[in-house]
Specification:
The complex is a heterodimer of chains A (about 775) and B (about 270). Chain A has 8 helices and 46 strands. With about 775 residues, chain A is mainly β. In chain A, the strands form 9 sheets. Chain A has a 26-stranded antiparallel β-sheet that branches. In chain A, a hairpin with a 2-residue loop joins β29 (about 490-510) and β30 (about 510-525). Classes of the chains: A mainly beta (about 775), B mainly beta (about 270).
Chain lengths: ~775, ~270
Amino acid sequence: MLALGWQSSVFAQDTDQAEATALEQVSVPVLLSQPPVDYPATALAEGETASVLLRLVIDTEGRVVDATVDESAGDAFDESAITAALQFIFEPARTADKEAVAVEILYRYVFSVQEVVVPVEAVEEEGDGEQQVVEPEPEGIEVLVVKRRLPTNEVTERILDVQDIRYLPGTGGDVVKVVQNLPGVGRSPLGTGNLIIRGTAPEDSGYFFDGAEIPTVFHFSGLTTVVTSESLQEVAFLPGSFSVRYGRVLGGLVDLRLSPSMPQQNRSYLSVDVYQATAFSEIVLGKKDALQISGRRSYIDAVLNPILNSGTRTVQAPRYYDFQARWLHETNRGDMLDIYFLLSDDSFRFVGPEEEGSVLQTGFGTRFQKLRVQYRQEFENDWRGDLTLFGGPESKEFATDGAGLAYEKPLVPSLRYEVSRTLTDDHMGWNFGTDTMAGVDSYLFDVPSFGPKEEGSSYLFMPGLYAEGLMRFGRTDLSLGSRMDALAFEDGFIGPIFDPRVSMKTKVWKGGAIKAATGRHSQFPETRQLLAEGDGNPDLGAKWALQSSLGLEQEIGSISSIEVVGFYHQLYDLVSGREDVLRFFTGPPDFGPFDTDPYANDGVGRTYGVEALWKLQTGRSIALVSATFSRSERQDRPDSELELFKYDQPVVLTAIGSREMGRSWRMGGRVRFSSGYPYTPVVNSFYDLSSRQYIPVFGDKDSSRLPDFFALDVRFDKEWVYDRWTLTTYLDIQNLTNTVNPEVISWSYDYEVEEPVTSNPFLPAFGIKGEW
Amino acid sequence: MVAVAILASCMPGPKVETMVDDLRILAMVADAPEITPGEAIAMTVHVGEPTNQPVDLLVWSCFNLGEGCLEAKSPERYFVVEDVSLQASIEMASDASVLAFLSPDLPEIPVAIWALACEPGVCPSIDLALAGELEESFLENPTDSLKDLPFDGVSLAFRTVWLSDREKKERRTNPVITPNFKLPDQASSEENIELLFGVASNQESVQAFGYATAGGFGAPENPVLEGEVTPIWYPAAEEMEETAETVRFWVAVQDEEGGVAVWTDALAY
């Protein structure tokens, strides 16, 4: 299941570990009772038989809490099978010490018709009078996969399963975008993929790819991710107080996780929507090898360029593409070699008129290529080792008409080796690992209108070590760990820094648990902030946060759960200064006022609040209601005041859901409300006659706030199942009510009139997808 | 979406920059833009006011070394002109003590010239200046006072003049702008007007800027090439109906060294 939300966070699992050990340690659930099933009438009349492969999630009491179709036999058979399966009662799966555990199984339901002679009065009369008896026959439980949810130390880990949430509205089927609907995540302006987690800046949180950080996860437009959702097994959202396996991040993180196991069958799809075309194919090459290839190309440029182009320049609208290739190989020893290549390329340009040779006037580009080589080994006594090399070039570029160029080009590969043992019979589990990065980081900011030239390059060496113990005492799981990081660079050295972390969870009553965590999380300054040859300060240290949280989770029946978490993050040694220099933004740029003093570890801050998530998941429906109430404050310099942080968003409310409506129709909706972000108002302006530009006079910092945001999105899906393939179409309408939502403040040329940039108006998107 | 934001920020908003719809200092022409410390500068301040109402003007200079203005103790610290219509000229003396700062490593020093134009009674600082009670702190940092003033009826602007001991022939000069057109008798709300100017300058890069009390100017081809530029005024029917009976034009040409020249005229419609 790896369901979204609550239960997942209760039994937050490391999927790799779970799958590696589960079959050996968990008994297979036994079917105790099954209700009669409704044989589809038309199929019955025609004597049609079928086989539906279901994926069932069975809870610790043996109830089926989720049933989805893995291999369809058509709408009618699928619906009948799901309806029946949700009423099954199993003897639950159990561990060696007889503890009942929730598991996921594959279950093949076979519909067959047997002709027998029975008394006429006992059966329905059909056709020419021939007697029939319907006898749907489940052909036993075909257990192909058993997944046990193993406890880890993650207090708040919210797992998104690709299959569960692909139909949720407003996401375009993109699993990573669903993260933005979870509690703890601020709504990012203009639909960009900024990670604004628990009131921290986007640059203080990170996107990871199986534990290794990647530069970005969204293409320019924020419409879609750089990784095809189907290549992922799940997306884990960790808003804070996470394991020592993750480091160098002050805020929270999102970890994109590939499936660690060999695929069972070939599958492919081709999808086309108004923005892009995507192709995906997974091919099983015998028992020991599998290949996965996917790619995507946008054509927004083709649609928008004729609209945008006017006057003396030509706008090249955002263009992006990505490509992924993966080869999985299982060795004769049972180890796994996993090689994955990821490429992403975004471009957005203004160019001159064609008659002048289409000279570049302004252009932006983000691109990276990453290769991941992973080798996973199983050892005796439940130990395992994962060796991962991850790296490749990346760059962000900005250029103007030959007069200005800015770029950042880090090439800093990472090497991870982790030895781990999951919680076993002796109630102890361990994680030991090294997480080391080394390479070169280069940058240039040479755009005269944005200040003096700044250029630098430095080698970076970031050794990292971590150790973590997982212990179980009765109903309580306790995790103790620490992480050590250091940074060596051209002009200095930072560290070693020790980040101890502790977390616990105790089951206090049936279906309910209390959890708590506290720990230190550190992040190094950016290279340009450190190098003396530019404006940097080599004496800077790492900024760090003391993150603490306390939460309560409760299952409500077998299909619903609720979680409430309070958090308090105290931030120290934040880097202040030089806010006026040109930099790359993942979202809207700052307008000021700016702290132009030199860089220093002068900043402190705090962010605190309460998050709540209610989740409902049945065989046909999924619904989430999330709420976040928080406050985020910063003090940039010792002599300044504690003020609201620019990413403070006191209230974020989201309700999102999707339901199968029968006849292969599915309908979903999403309602969002959030407070607007603070901004500093302009109270007057004066005129620089030399540059002929107005200069704003700012009022009190962050003393104004953008209006509240509201949007209603809906989505409709229709599926047609054929013998060899499935066709799906969808209509995803964002901002159905056409609400005008100011997202980023902007001003008239003289700053007298506020002219905010608004979010998208009523925006329908249509897509079609063929799977086979 | 970021791209959309960038595009939006590039697009003109509801306010047209080239239309003078409120009190606005449009240019400060220094004759000359580079002088020897102790010499006087003839400063002409061009003020745009859509209803032709006279305004009050305060002008001063500040060579700020980080500890206030060097001119703080000058006998004529600032100049106040009442009832200014369109433009005012002031003879300002530069501070001779700046000469001591000049050296081969620092052959020229920029000095900021500030001008504050206000509708009568709007700016307390002008009232204080008229009473001779204006404090030096305002002259050091005039932008702070803007926090308490309205947008409308107030315009604060600054430019730079240069102090050096160079030979006169080596100093910066103002460009010369020559109208090579004949204005029509009357502006029409349906026709554009092309204003062809000859521009002479000893600088490589000169830019032109057009302003009008109604309608607006399209962006001229900048920088000025081959000594000619043709700003195009376009009418806007709505503004034409709302404004007074005349439309006033200003065209300023400005080089990258602080040289400025201004042409202005008005048309009935």
